[in-house]
Amino acid sequence: MTPFFAMSLLFGLAFGQTASLCAPSEYIIHVEKRECAYCLAINTTICAGFCMTRDSNGKKLLLKSALSQNVCTYKEMLYQTALIPGCPHHTIPYYSYPVAVSCKCGKCNTDYSDCVHEKVRTNYCTKPQKLCSI
């Protein structure tokens, strides 16, 4: 193994451990309303990935605010609105959803993010499906 290759390999491993892999990822949201005839499958982007964190051994000596770990969360986002087809006139047929423009590793903001990982969650339609590509 050449010295250049060995140094490149070591640099890659060291950089790979500190680099964030938090980025916008494609995701499909399934939306339906009881009154409407269809379920809407919406293509959007969410923030997903790995953020480097460190767990302190001195947990009893630190404040709880110092123990929170970084998560992959929104840096910039915008909202899109989709029309759910097959809704009666008395029902509001619109659904607004976030679209991740850019992501960062940071503290989870409960104003716009669910900071708890659910063990069992289904994302599917119980009604006929329509695809929305906005």
Topology diagram in text:
Blueprint: H1 3-18, E1 23-32, E2 39-48, E3 71-83, E4 94-106, E5 129-132
Parallel strand pairs: 2-5
Antiparallel strand pairs: 1-2, 3-4
Task: Calculate Rg over CA atoms.
Answer: 21 Å
The helix-strand sequence is: HEEEEE
For the biggest sheet, the summary is: 3 strands, mixed
CATH homologous superfamily identity: Cystine-knot cytokines
- Work out the helix count: 1
Question: Major sheet: order of its strands?
Answer: 1-2-5
Beta-strand content: 35-45%
Shape: elongated
Give the strand tally.
Answer: 5
Q: What is the CATH T-level topology?
A: Cystine Knot Cytokines, subunit B
| CATH A-level architecture | Ribbon
Mean pLDDT: 76
Top-tier CATH class: Mainly Beta
- How many domain modules? 1
User: Helix share of residues?
Assistant: 10-25%
Main location: secreted
Subunit structure: Heterodimer of a common alpha chain and a unique beta chain which confers biological specificity to thyrotropin, lutropin, follitropin and gonadotropin.
GO biological process, one term: G protein-coupled receptor signaling pathway
Protein name: Thyrotropin subunit beta
Q: Tags for this entry?
A:
elongated; Thyrotropin subunit beta; 3-stranded mixed beta sheet; 134 residues; 1 helix; single chain; Cystine Knot Cytokines, subunit B; mainly beta
Summarize the structure.
Strand 1 and strand 2 (39-48) form a beta hairpin. The protein has one helix and five strands.
